[in-house]
Hints:
Nuclear Transport Factor 2, Chain: A, 3 helices, five-stranded antiparallel β-sheet, disordered C terminus, globular
Amino acid sequence: MKKGIKMASTLAMLVLAVSLTANIVxxxxxxxxxxxSREITFSDLPQSVKDTVxxxxxxxxxxxxxxxxxxxxxxxxxxxxxxxFEVGLLINPDGKVxxxxxxxxxADDEDGEEDDD
Length: 117
């Protein structure tokens, strides 16, 4: 029975290693897809994206807006602070949220100052 447990444990470790490697490769390929980006203002957004930003941000002050050109076309990135959390969205030109991220804000983000990173 110990042999079966050891094999299962080895298999689980192998699956975990492959999964972590796949995530790293996927993150690198996302960066490769970006051609350029520029900071924009709210008035630069298409109306459909404005509507999504208003609905999703629920009145929180927008911290950053970017227009990103990728190999597949334009996407818009919006970030705001929600209490102790930084919320980020990627939105396509039709106003559809294609990625959503919510993470604990850095101490610098909470004071409104930019990171040195």
